[in-house]
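Hey,

Quick one before I head out. I ran the complex with FE2/S2 (inorganic) cluster overnight. Inputs first:
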Amino acid sequence: MAIQLMINGKPESVDVPPNMPLLWVLRDTLGMTGTKFGCGMALCGACTVHIDGEATRSCITPVSSVVGKKITTIEGLSPDRSHPVQRAWIEVDVPQCGYCQSGQIMSAASLLAQNPKPSDSQIDDAMKGNICRCGTYQRIREAVHRAAELHKPSAKSARLNGADETGDAQDNQPVETVGAI
Ligand code: FES
Ligand code: FES
């Protein structure tokens, strides 16, 4: 039976089992490979997306549980890499191999939507579920602070570009993803 989803501001209809993890639907059914598969057990954070603005592990989220909710993936975070977190990540040159980074960015964006000026310990706490095998943690922390500095002016322009209060763009313009595999 077809399941109706709202992904990056766009309605999608998918014919998949209701208990299929959202990550499988995104990557295998819809071809949205910006969101990564790491562990499949909610242990690494590579699969992080936003569900109604909350950072969520899509590998353990049954697709039926997100019907009627707003799903945002790395592809929909902004139409043109202008989200403050994306700008900060580029400025600080955070990624090494890049595999974990879309999940890191989604967790950081969710953190800043809830706490626009996080401390080091608040950043570490919010990001601790996102594992980076390359050890980019120092740069991630620096980039979250930088994104916090960029957040206010950008939030205004994001609203002009159709983003909601979480900073997630809603016009479904494709975004070049970090390390799409
Ligand atoms: S793939 Fe979902 S947390 Fe690792
Ligand atoms: S940049 Fe390589 S795993 Fe994080």
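The beta strands are 2-7, 10-15, 48-51, 54-57, 70-72.

Talk tomorrow,
K.
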